[in-house]
Specification:
The protein is α/β, with parallel strands linked by helices. Helices cover 36% and strands 22% of the residues. The protein is globular, with a radius of gyration of 19 Å.
Length: 238
């Protein structure tokens, strides 16, 4: 079993040989979560956490100590990190890259995680992490334009009506959506130009499916990429 522990929700993945993986989302670490974990009786657990120490302690209480593993960069094999201090690379980015390398071996990879922030990470065909970018995600872009101005309304992505907006809401939505699409396209194009090996664009995160429909570049949507990466890492440790 693997889990991605955030500040507002916990995503889990249960993997068994011969069966499709089971993915769940929990908004609370409560009795429902505990009952679910006990019903599975996993023989090993790997946790990726961006939550508080208090939340981590609470989650750890649901599992036997000897079965529990906490993700760190040294667990990920076959990737040469570009960060001088790889322990500072986000745990979700570690897991996503591990999954992408496993699922698309021998390719040059761009992994775009469109969540609270938009992160892009790049991996060459030999497993060298080339670096990445972090920029505001969809909601952050729309909320900041509303919050830090006196007169702009709060748009949502559904207000997007094409590249050229014909109302304030449509213009705000176009700025946010088109800006994210342009960022992804620009960096992916740069990756392809500078590498002769086939390049693959992979989207994950809450806005992945939405953005995929607006991109010109062929892409793969992998909504459970982080959990899949945690599973591949856990499997390699056993």
């Amino acid at each position: 079993m693997v889990a991605d522990l955030g500040n507002s929700r916990t995503k889990t993945g249960y993997f068994q040989d011969g069966s499709p993986p089971e993915f769940r989302i929990f908004t609370e670490l409560d009795s429902d979560f505990g009952n679910y974990c006990r019903s599975l009786s996993p023989d090993a657990v790997l946790i990726s956490s961006t939550a508080s120490a208090e939340q981590e302690k609470k989650l750890a209480g649901f599992f036997p100590k000897e079965d529990l593993n906490w993700l760190h960069h040294k667990m990920v094999s076959g990737i040469q990190w570009s960060y001088p201090e790889p322990e500072k690379l986000g745990k979700d980015r570690l897991a996503s890259l591990a999954a992408a390398k496993e699922k698309w071996p021998g390719r040059v990879l761009c992994v775009a995680d469109a969540g609270t922030c938009l992160t892009l990470d790049f991996l060459d065909a030999e497993g060298k992490h080339l670096g990445g970018i972090i920029s505001p995600g969809m909601d952050m872009r729309l909320e900041s334009m509303h919050r830090f101005t006196a007169g702009l309304p709060r748009a949502v992505s559904a207000d997007f009506a094409g590249i050229f907006g014909k109302s304030t809401l449509a213009c705000l939505a176009s700025g946010a959506v088109s800006g994210m699409v342009a960022e992804i396209e620009y960096h992916f194009k740069y990756l392809k130009i500078n590498h002769s090996v086939e390049s693959v664009l992979i989207l994950t995160g809450g806005n992945a499916e939405y953005l995929a429909h607006h991109l010109n570049s062929p892409n793969f949507v992998a909504p459970h990429l982080v959990l899949e990466g945690l599973y591949f890492i856990l499997r390699s440790l056993r």
